[in-house]
Amino acid sequence: MPLYRVTVKQPKVSNGLRIERGMSVEVVTNSISNPVSTDSGQSVADAFMRVYGIDMKKIGALNMVYLDVQRIS
């Protein structure tokens, strides 16, 4: 199963939530596809909620404009 590091590329403030450049999470997926575009990015959203307590869907930042994805292994 591939391991990805998902990092915030640019800051955003929306709906009372804030993300900053450099915030990152690691996500393990069953698919070799980009975890942001697979399954509506749910695994990435869950990881940001678990690590930072931020709802990426509510802030509207669960897309490649705000996130950089790198495959680690």
Provide structural commentary.
The chain has a three-stranded antiparallel β-sheet, covered by helices on one side. The protein has a two-stranded antiparallel sheet with strand order 2-3. It is α+β, with helices and mostly antiparallel strands and 73 residues long. The protein has helices at residues 42-52, 56-59, and strands at 3-8, 12-14, 17-19, 24-28, 67-71. It is 21% helix and 30% strand. The protein is globular and about 35 Å long. Strand 2 and strand 3 form a beta hairpin.
Mean pLDDT: 94
Number of strands: 5
Unreliable spans are: none
In DSSP terms (H or I, runs of 4 or more residues), the helix count works out at: 2
Structural class: alpha+beta
Shape: globular
Q: Supply Rg.
A: 11 Å
Strand content: 25-35%
Reading the helices and strands in chain order gives EEEEHHE
User: Helical residue percent?
Assistant: 10-25%
With strands numbered from the N-terminus, the spatial order across the biggest sheet is 4-1-5
Biggest β-sheet strands, sense, barrel = 3 strands, antiparallel
- Report the span from N to C terminus: 8 Å
